[in-house]
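> example.struct
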């Protein structure tokens, strides 16, 4: 097949996406496809329209890539593309709106509040947040990834500076109760039949599972399955599957969860284009389930093409 792999882009996760795209492209070439890497820029519309591609593999992370915008472009172009559609992509990028939906269907989401960072941070606001959520509390941009702009604030000063930092990435900032427990992530595939991948526990050398821990070799370890009781693994897997379907995801997603001492799975977020290097979390969990990286990429392409063929709706431009 003639395939395009979309990568790079302008988000804060550009570097990660370049790596994901490179490895996806290599894997798909290994399966005999004719693969063109496309670094997202202003010419991408023309490149994709004129390229006679049979499918687009989307390896873009973050804003303008994972958030429904690129999916909208691909819908207009009438090209099959991997992963979730416009709505689920946009929803999952928005931690506040996704969190509200997940809480409304009865899943456990650490209590949170959204703030609009238009002015500076008033001392009363900080005081109110501290008394509502306790310390430490978490401050993060509503629409960002890779732990960028995130602070775990241990005192009022850190809350104030955390709000300013998060506000640099997104005017909409989320303040959240700190969930303590075992950090796990669960990959879900739906190509189209749903397969919940084994629980993967993340052990970080850094106190926080931050950008450095995520992308520096040796700074975090994956343990499959997670070292939590069987019942907690089941509960977390059911939570991941429900989050995936209720948010309307398609193809793949990875659900970040903290499992507390009582075994309750607290959902942090759903990633619709998770890291896709061979060593990334979802590919690692897929491998543990017997799905090699190239097979994973192939499945996502096959699903995208099948979904497009079954599409009912207005014709593309
Ligand atoms: N409410 C929370 N309680 C405890 N740790 C959190 C919380 N929110 C985020 N974290 C930590 O920060 C990391 C990144 O947060 P997450 O919500 O997954 O955003 P993203 O990965 O998109 O930056 C998590 O993997 C976790 O280590
Ligand atoms: Mg995350």
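> example.seq
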């Amino acid at each position: 097949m003639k395939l395009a792999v979309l990568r790079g882009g302008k988000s804060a996760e550009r570097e990660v996406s370049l790596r994901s795209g490179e490895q996806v492209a290599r894997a798909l070439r290994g399966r005999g496809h004719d693969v063109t890497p496309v670094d997202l820029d202003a010419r991408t519309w023309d490149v994709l329209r004129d390229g006679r591609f049979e499918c687009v593999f989307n390896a873009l992370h973050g804003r303008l890539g994972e958030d429904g915008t690129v999916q909208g472009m691909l819908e207009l172009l009438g090209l099959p593309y991997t992963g979730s559609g416009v709505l689920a992509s946009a929803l999952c990028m928005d931690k506040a709106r996704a969190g509200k939906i997940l809480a409304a269907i009865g899943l456990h989401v650490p209590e949170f509040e959204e703030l609009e960072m238009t002015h500076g941070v008033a001392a009363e606001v900080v005081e109110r947040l501290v008394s509502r959520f306790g310390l430490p509390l978490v401050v993060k941009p509503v629409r960002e990834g890779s732990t960028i702009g995130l602070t775990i604030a241990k005192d009022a000063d850190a809350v104030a500076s955390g709000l300013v930092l998060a506000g640099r990435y997104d005017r909409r900032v989320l303040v959240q109760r700190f969930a303590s427990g075992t950090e796990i992530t669960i990959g879900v595939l739906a190509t189209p039949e749903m397969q919940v991948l084994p629980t993967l526990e993340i052990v970080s050398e850094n106190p926080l599972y931050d950008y450095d821990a995520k992308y520096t070799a040796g700074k975090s370890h994956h343990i499959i399955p997670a070292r939590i009781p069987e019942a907690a693994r089941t509960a977390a897997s059911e939570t991941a599957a429900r989050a995936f379907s209720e948010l309307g995801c398609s193809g793949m997603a990875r659900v970040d969860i903290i499992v507390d001492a009582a075994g309750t799975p607290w959902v942090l977020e759903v990633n619709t284009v998770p890291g896709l290097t061979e060593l990334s979390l979802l590919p690692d969990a897929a491998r543990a389930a017997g799905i090699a990286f190239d097979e994973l990429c192939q499945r996502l392409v096959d699903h995208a093409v099948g979904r497009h063929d079954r599409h009912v709706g207005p014709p593309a431009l």
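> remarks
Residues 128 and 147 are 24 Å apart (CA to CA).
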